[in-house]
Design brief:
The complex is a heterodimer.
Chain A lengths: L2 E3 L3 E5 L4 E8 L5 E7 L6 E6 L3 E5 L2 E6 L4 E6 L8 E8 L7 E3 L3 E6 L1
Parallel strand pairs in A: 2-11
Antiparallel strand pairs in A: 1-3, 3-8, 4-5, 4-9, 6-7, 7-8, 9-10, 9-11
Chain B lengths: L3 E4 L2 E4 L5 E7 L5 E8 L3 E10 L2 E4 L7 E2 L9 E3 L8 E8 L7 E3 L3 E5 L1
Parallel strand pairs in B: 2-11
Antiparallel strand pairs in B: 1-3, 3-8, 4-5, 4-9, 5-6, 7-8, 9-10, 9-11
Classes of the chains: A mainly beta, B mainly beta.
């Protein structure tokens, strides 16, 4: 089977840096994605890591360590608009396009 | 405007009454998926399609059917809805596979009484 673990909630203040971790247990693994979802909205894609290392996109970075079955999303210079839920998702190799999402981390950014 | 559309956005129905939720994308994407989102459970993949007439099961396919007769459309069919299918449903499409950037529709909130 497969499972992904994320913290349920993280709080931070504007301007700070926050890291959202994701650990996974799967029988097969191809890569790790991150999505953002504001309340009442649809998920939007943030990043994908297919190989170990850090991927940077503006204020957001994502990291993957396949040997540790672990990844994280790093958000820098936090803004109020970053308050949202963040989901990691694992692409499985059992079923080429199967994607399994974590239960999400709710980020609350305060002034 | 590049987008994924879903209809209806809200639906209240009764147990056993067949329904279809439509999904359409205008980006010429080959890959499309359906997800359901329930509190505390995140998003769970129901079905996905890699191209016209090519579909496969995701994690929670029971009670659902899909079809992909045209590249742009990927309807979700509930032949005999039950209350445990009350959920928020999202359709998504992508150019290079579900691992890459998926574009999500606005969601359909379904209530089965």
């Amino acid at each position: 089977g497969q499972s992904l673990e994320q913290p349920s909630e993280v709080t931070a203040v504007e301007g700070a840096i926050v890291q959202i971790n994701c650990t996974y247990q799967t029988s097969g693994f191809y890569g790790l994605s991150w999505y953002q979802q504001h309340d009442g909205g649809a998920p939007t894609f943030l990043s994908y890591n297919g190989l170990d290392g850090l991927e940077e996109t503006g204020r957001f970075s994502s990291f993957l360590s396949r040997s540790d079955s672990y990844g994280y999303l790093l958000l820098q210079e936090l803004q109020m608009k970053d308050s949202a839920s963040y989901f990691c998702a694992v692409r499985m190799n059992t079923g080429f396009q199967k994607l399994v999402f974590g239960t999400g981390t709710r980020l609350l950014v305060s002034p | 405007e590049a987008q994924v559309t879903q209809n209806p956005r809200y639906l209240i129905t009764v147990t056993g009454k067949k329904l279809t939720v439509t999904c359409s994308q205008n980006m010429n994407h080959e890959y499309m998926s359906w997800y359901r989102q329930d509190p505390g459970l995140g998003l769970r993949q129901i079905y996905y399609s890699m191209n016209v007439e090519v579909t496969d099961k995701g994690d929670v396919p029971e009670g659902y059917k899909v079809s992909r007769k045209e590249k742009r459309n990927f309807p979700l069919i509930l032949e005999s809805p039950s209350p445990n299918q009350t959920s928020l449903y999202f359709c998504a499409s992508s150019l290079e596979g579900t691992f890459n950037e998926q574009f999500f529709g606005p969601g359909t909130r379904l209530t089965v009484l």
